[in-house]
């Protein structure tokens, strides 16, 4: 009887393992079809569900892994398959959707300080507007569609603590709107959540700070964000260049855009939200004996034009055309890594993503961008 029981258990374990085998490029069969269907349900396009693990399925697996913070190796092993299984509980949602997943979404939006209306399981205009406001505040693509990245941001929005750019009376932008919505949710009336930090918002901030034992100065800095309990990103315009930095004309995909800059080490600047994240990363690295020396941050049009001329005439490094460098948008930073074999580079490779930074140019180990 004991032998039979052991044999049965072994067979069950073997069947369990075979039900979700490790899959990689070139694999074929029903398990691949299941994988492709799971990827599609999670909002990633693997191509046709034909049971063939080809280039499109590989790209979809890698995109899913990247979105879930997994090792991006394109291999669907236990961790990736497990994450795909759990992703079924958070399907892609858009205007018109109905059901329990929509109710979950609405409750998470409320917890993050965004008002979707009643948690009735119906994805209508109010829920769509709340999703768009949340995406805008978190620096995501503002499409009103709740896919993997928006779910991931919503799931992290409820954790203890919070962060955001420094805000004060006169500030404008989506972070201000998120602040106002959170204050209103917590019972501190800041008036209409219009993205303008005026007298009512100032009074609400001071009342909140006083209730939490903070210095009631009306300035929303790291300690106040921490007590508010939400994580907010996005460009903000602060008055007079104080606290949130000076306001300049930056460029994103060739289009001029007013952005607020704040300082990072070595006398450089980045967009205010990117600077706040970089300074946190710099402090974390320093605590582990690593110094992140900044060689380049925000660039003016004149600076980019000079670099591009040098690149074109063969006397300088690769440079994007003026108006198209992410340095001009304030989100790119060049760090003195000393190549890919140094302790500085290894630290960045292992930790930068935790602060929203990723390496985006394969030939430039020093170039990192803020893409939370």
Characterize the structure shown.
This protein is an alpha+beta fold and 372 residues long. The chain has four domains: 22-87, PGBD-like superfamily/PGBD (Muramoyl-pentapeptide Carboxypeptidase, domain 1); 100-157, Orthogonal Bundle (Muramoyl-pentapeptide Carboxypeptidase, domain 1), CATH 1.10.101; 174-241, PGBD-like superfamily/PGBD (Muramoyl-pentapeptide Carboxypeptidase, domain 1); 247-370, 2-Layer Sandwich (Muramoyl-pentapeptide Carboxypeptidase, domain 2), CATH 3.30.1380.10. The protein has helices at 2-19, 30-41, 55-67, 78-87, 100-111, 125-137, 148-157, 174-185, 199-211, 222-228, 272-287, 301-312, 343-351; strands spanning 247-252, 255-264, 268-271, 294-296, 332-335, 357-359, 367-370. The protein has a four-stranded antiparallel sheet with strand order 4-5-7-6, with helices on one face. It has a three-stranded antiparallel sheet with strand order 1-2-3. A hairpin with a 2-residue loop joins β1 (247-252) and β2 (255-264). α2 (30-41) crosses α4 (78-87) and α6 crosses α8. Mean pLDDT is 82; it is low at 1-19.
């Amino acid at each position: 009887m004991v032998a039979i029981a052991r044999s049965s258990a072994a067979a069950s374990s073997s069947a369990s393992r075979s039900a979700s085998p490790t899959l990689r490029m070139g694999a074929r069969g029903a398990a691949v079809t299941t994988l492709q269907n799971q990827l599609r349900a999670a909002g990633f396009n693997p191509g046709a569900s034909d049971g063939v693990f080809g280039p499109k399925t590989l790209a979809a697996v890698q995109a899913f892994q990247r979105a879930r913070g997994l090792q991006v190796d394109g291999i669907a092993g236990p961790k990736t398959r497990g994450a795909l299984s759990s992703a079924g509980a958070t399907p892609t949602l858009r205007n018109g959707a109905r059901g329990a997943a929509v109710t979950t979404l609405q409750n998470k939006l409320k917890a993050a300080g965004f008002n979707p209306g009643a948690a009735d399981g119906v994805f209508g205009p109010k829920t769509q507007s709340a999703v768009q406001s949340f995406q805008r505040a978190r620096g995501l693509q503002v499409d009103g569609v709740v896919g993997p990245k928006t779910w991931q941001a919503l799931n992290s929005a409820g954790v203890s603590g919070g962060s955001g750019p420094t805000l004060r009376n006169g500030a404008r932008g989506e972070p201000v709107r998120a602040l106002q919505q959170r204050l209103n949710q917590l019972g501190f009336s800041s008036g209409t959540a219009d993205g303008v930090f005026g007298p009512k918002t100032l009074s609400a901030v001071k009342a909140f700070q006083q209730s939490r034992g903070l210095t009631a100065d009306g300035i929303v800095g790291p300690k106040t964000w921490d007590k508010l309990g939400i994580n907010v990103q996005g460009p903000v315009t602060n008055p007079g260049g104080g606290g949130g930095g000076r306001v300049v004309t930056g460029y994103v995909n060739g289009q001029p855009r007013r952005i607020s800059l704040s300082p990072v080490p070595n006398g450089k600047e980045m967009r205010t939200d990117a600077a706040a994240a970089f300074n946190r990363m710099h402090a974390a690295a320093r605590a582990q004996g690593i110094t992140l020396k900044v060689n380049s941050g925000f660039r003016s049009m004149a600076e980019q034009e000079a670099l591009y001329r040098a690149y074109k005439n063969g006397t300088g490094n690769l440079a994007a055309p003026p108006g198209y460098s992410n340095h001009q948008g304030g989100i790119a930073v060049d760090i003195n890594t000393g190549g890919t074999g140094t302790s500085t580079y290894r630290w960045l490779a292992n930790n930068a993503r935790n602060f929203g930074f990723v390496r985006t140019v394969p030939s430039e180990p020093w170039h990192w961008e803020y893409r939370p």
